[in-house]
Amino acid sequence: MSTSARRPAAGTAVTRPATTTAVRAPTLTSRRAAPVQTGRKDTILLAAERLFAQRGYHAVSIRQIAEEAGVPLALVGYYFGQKHELFAAIFQHWSTTIDERLAGLRAAVQAGGDQLLRHIVEAFVNPVLRLRASPEGEFYALLVARELAYASPEADEVLRRHFDPMAHAFVDALQGALPGSTPADAAWGYQFALGALLHHLSDHRVERLSRGSARANDPQARDRLLDFIEGGLRATRTSAPPRRARSPATTTTSTTTITTTRRPR
């Protein structure tokens, strides 16, 4: 083979560096691409939501959330800050559920009529039950049922910021729908309704208590829950006859009886 044949062609010498650059450039560009990073933020949020719902806020660490999400530990702090900020971000993410409940409440109040109370209860309950039945909202509904029932500082902050404005709107509507009720009646009624709803979201004991004839989170139980809450709200008004207090005479008689039957030792 001649020496000239072994020499690279002039064009080849120029092309070789260009080819190297062409290979490296896409690699650098792909590392800078945003889609993977953007998806990681949602992945972290979902991992935190799932772990908080299953184990409780205080039983979960940032490291465990990072491991569940499959991301570096520092990335959790980069996107969300401290753990309580990540906790609050979950509720901000699902704020559309609160918007849906308030929209239903406004529609019920504007429509009025004999079924006003029932429609208020439906606006309060139905969006949450739909969320609980959906694959994407199951863990959030469980998180609400589990964490907001406890008076931790983190849960109280979430309640004040996200849920109290909605609660005040429902309390005002309940008082308007229950003639003769007081603000206290409406507030107690709202709390009792909330307790029934939260318990229904997370309860499985009904299967055991019913000896298998009832299924936990059964969609067919929705009407039972609505009836229960509506009936309870009607019964919490102060216009209901108060219980008779024990009379002083009865107390005196009881005390006297105890005294006379006591024998000196």
Quick overview:
This protein has helices spanning 3-6, 10-32, 35-55, 62-69, 73-80, 83-93, 95-111, 116-133, 138-147, 153-177, 183-202, 205-209, 222-235, 248-261. With 265 residues, the chain is mainly alpha-helical. The chain has 2 domains: 35-90, Orthogonal Bundle (Arc Repressor Mutant, subunit A); 94-235, Orthogonal Bundle (Tetracycline Repressor, domain 2), CATH 1.10.357.
Overall 3D form: globular
The major pleated sheet works out as: none
Q: Note the run of SSEs as H and E.
A: HHHHHHHHHHHHHH
CATH architecture grouping of the largest domain: Orthogonal Bundle
CATH class of the largest domain: Mainly Alpha
Task: Give the beta-strand count.
Answer: 0
Q: Count the helices. How many? A: 14
**Topology-level CATH name of the largest domain:** Tetracycline Repressor, domain 2
Termini distance? 130 Å
SS-derived structural category: mainly alpha
The Cα radius of gyration reads 31 Å
- The parts where pLDDT drops under 50 for at least 5 residues are 1-38, 249-265
In CATH terms, the superfamily of the largest domain is Tetracycline Repressor, domain 2
Strand content: under 5%
Q: In which range does the helix fraction lie?
A: over 70%
